[in-house]
Amino acid sequence: MNRRKFMTQSAAAAVVASASQLSHAKPSTPSTVSGQVVTIGPDGDYLEIADALSAISPLASPSSPYILKLLPGIHFVRGGEIVIPSWIALAGCGQQISTIDFEDEITYFSVSSNSKISDVSMTAFRSSSQAASGMLVAKRERVVDFYLENVTFALTGGYQSAIEQIWYNHVWYWDNVNIYTDSIGIIMRGYQYLRNTNVFLSGNGTGTPYYGIYVPSMCRLYAWSMRCGTGYGETTSAGFGSDLEVDNDADSDVVGIFVPLDNPTNPRLELHGLESYCRNELASDVSSKVNCMRIEAGIARLFGCFTQAETPSDWSLGEDLHVESGGTVEVYGCRYTTVSGNLSSRNQQAIARKTVSNDGETLSVDAETQHAGSMVMCDACGGSFTLLLPSDWAGGQPPGMLWTFIKTDDTLNSVTIRVPWGTISGKSEVVLDVPYQRVQVLHGDENSRKWFEV
User: Fold this and answer.
1) Residues 62 and 162 in one domain
2) Any idea what DSSP says for residue 5?
3) Alpha carbons within 13 A on the beta-carbon side of 307
4) Who wins on pLDDT, 396 or 193?
5) Is residue 65 in a domain?
6) Residue 48 contacts by C-beta under 8 Å, 6 or more apart in sequence?
7) Which helix (H) or strand (E) element contains residue 12?
8) Sheet of strand 184-187: strand arrangement
């Protein structure tokens, strides 16, 4: 794979340069609107977006939807919240052809159900935690059937996010969306269906974390053909890293997709064809990590994905997949290099390492807190120890979980695999007490207490 072909666009630089500026000094003079398409620009029905929305919003309805067409050029918006109401589609003439520029740090679009934004680029600068928290914000309790198609975002300044979804019961559909940011791409909640959506992390000394997708609460994410990370490529846009990577933030996290430990809602992420390079050129602080995925809560399932975390200054700070005890990652036909924590894998061996310090540990508890690993390397050099399998597999998990236990030392110290309230081929435990001995155990029927040696 030629990594230089990953994220080679320089759209962040071209967002402003390629479009001619529209003066907003000319007063807006609305004309009589005929039909359901309203044009915005010097030669359009309205000069500015806010004026067109003010006039059209009361007219839009399920039986009378409107398209607000942005003519080529840069459209400046300012002054705070700008509501995109239901039954209105805001459409440009193409990414980098029609551009929306948020002139101040307090201005943002607040989106609604049954609306759409398409074929446009957006630029914004956010330099403090008091700035508007997103360029697009779903601030109402429920925004459903919102469509985002062929849109490019460029956010600089190191603060806030390009898109923020407040509450948790949204339903959004994304297609061909590109986000360039030196802070957070998406603060995501609700039901999200993404196709060809890419988040590019890049920055120069912002001192703030870099997160592609941040999931703080309930989320059901389904994504196909997504790229999320720093990548490789070139850009000359001020405020971004020289090579579309984080190049001088030694104390900052870089995470492609992040589900934090304090997320209590057991989110589910299903990712098909994710490609993620995450890199921090000068990462050096032990409290800062570089991860393609950091799943501290909930479950992420990866199908045919490619992940690679890089920290050239200290390779120990980079982990493709970082999994805490409250999270689970399942991989199917994926390529990954480094894993922190344990992993569930059907067709590829993920490795967990256990020693006498893990004596009495239950390897899996339930669907909320499981930390299942398919290959367990057991080092008994420091003494004998016992690992516990669950008595049943709660939470509706599928049967067929296969564990392989390998004793990796040449001592006679024993490793005991025990099921406190179940059996392994009719026994309560199996014991590895021969150097380099191995055993595989298979979980039986769903919610069964029976395991089997295979």
Assistant:
1) yes
2) G
3) 30
4) 193
5) yes
6) 24, 28, 40, 75, 76, 77
7) helix 11-17
8) 81-84, 108-111, 136-138, 161-165, 184-187, 210-214, 254-259, 290-295, 318-323, 339-340
Res. 17: pLDDT tops 60 = no
Residue 79 has pLDDT above 70, yes or no: yes
Nearest to 23 by CA among 43, 45, 53, 1: 43
Name the residue with tokens 């700035």: 131
Q: What angle do CA 82, 158, 242 make, to 5 degrees?
A: 120
Residue 185 pLDDT > 70, yes or no? Answer: yes
Q: Locate tokens 């679009």: which residue? A: 109
Give me the residue label for tokens 């899996």: 364
Per this entry, what is the length of the chain? Answer: 454
Last residue of a domain, one of 311, 341, 371: 341
| pTM score above 0.85 | no
Phi and psi torsions of 199, nearest 5°? -120, 120
Q: Is pLDDT of 349 > 80?
A: no
The tokens describing 422, both together, are 């179940």
Kindly report the backbone phi and psi dihedral angles of residue 234, in degrees, each rounded to the nearest multiple of 5, phi listed first: -135, 145
- Mean pLDDT (the chain) is 84
Regarding whether 264 and 373 lie in a shared domain, the answer is no
- CATH number at 212 reads 2.160.20
Instruction: Please say whether the beta carbons of 188 and 219 come within 8 A.
Output: yes
Q: Are residues 258 and 116 in the same domain?
A: yes
| Residue 333: CB atoms within 10 Å | 12
pLDDT at 402 over 50: yes
Q: Which residue has the higher pLDDT, 148 or 12?
A: 148
Alpha carbon of residue 152 to chain centroid:
17
Summarize pLDDT for 261-286 with one digit per residue, the tens.
Answer: 998 888 999 999 999 999 887 777 77
Question: Can you give the pLDDT at residue 398?
Answer: 47
